[in-house]
Amino acid sequence: MPVPLFQVDAFTDRLFAGNPAGVCLLDAPESAEWMRLVAREMNLSETAFAVSGDDGFSLRWFTPVVEVDLCGHATLATAHVLWETGRLAPEVPARFHTRSGLLTARRVGEWIAIDFPRLPFAAGPIPAEVTQALGVEARLTGLFGPKWLIEVESEAAVRAVRPDFVRLRSIPGRGVVVTSAADRASVYDFISRYFAPWVGVDEDPVTGSVHCCLGPFWSERLGKRELLACQASSRGGWLRIKVTDDRVELAGRAVTVLRGELRA
By the 8 A CB rule, do 209 and 183 touch? Predict the structure, then answer.
């Protein structure tokens, strides 16, 4: 049977910006290898696979190389597709059962707000080869889960990063985010870029899950619970963030680019 398949630009309100995600709606679970092959065929940073159940949807995410534990933009894209296709009524929240527990999404006007777990940051040294491969001077470094965070001095320094991906891949790792406070004249509170060549994504256009750490990180430094974030990839995207004690709400918009059928 043909499987409904969509491509959605997430964390943007216009086509060909934000972060493109694949969304595959399944009638029944498929094997992890089959999903990985579909994700490789889509060749996007992540493809989401949703299966309807009694209490929401089972949701899994795959890069072209591996399954991941948490993905923001593909979750937002999946919720967008469920409402756009009428599988969920507009006023009904989306409930997703995932490797990271229950995640929910709700519509807020033209925006979609997704409720995610807060990811703690631990300041500390990271391999010097990482900053050298990125060509940055770090003000602060540390870890959130298995990923590295590097704070640099300015928005200009974030935008100027030109990674040596060959060198990065030679260092055992999972992902690295470079961030700074935004310029004073900016409408944004902070800015970032995220690189994950170890999982087949050299630079991710807009990374929801990373903001589960960046939101609390900048909330503490700027003294704000609500923030506006920019991810300064070549495609670009933005997020509204609300930080609570143990959760982070990420809000963005989404646009469907393609819809079709998978004949596999």
Answer: no
Domains, the chain, in order of start with CATH, read: 3-114 (3.10.310.10), 122-243 (3.10.310.10)
Query: Out of 46, 151, 155, 249, which one is annotated catalytic?
Result: 46
pLDDT tens digit at each of 264 positions of the chain? 899 999 999 999 999 999 999 999 999 999 999 999 999 999 999 999 999 999 999 999 999 999 999 999 999 999 999 999 999 999 999 999 999 999 999 999 999 999 999 999 999 999 999 999 999 999 999 999 999 999 999 999 999 999 999 999 999 999 999 999 999 999 999 999 999 999 999 999 999 999 999 999 999 999 999 999 999 999 999 999 999 999 999 999 999 999 999 987
Told to judge if 220 belongs to the known catalytic residues of this protein, a careful annotator would answer no
Asked whether 121 and 216 are in contact (CB, 8 A), the reply is: yes
d(CA 202, CA 200): 6
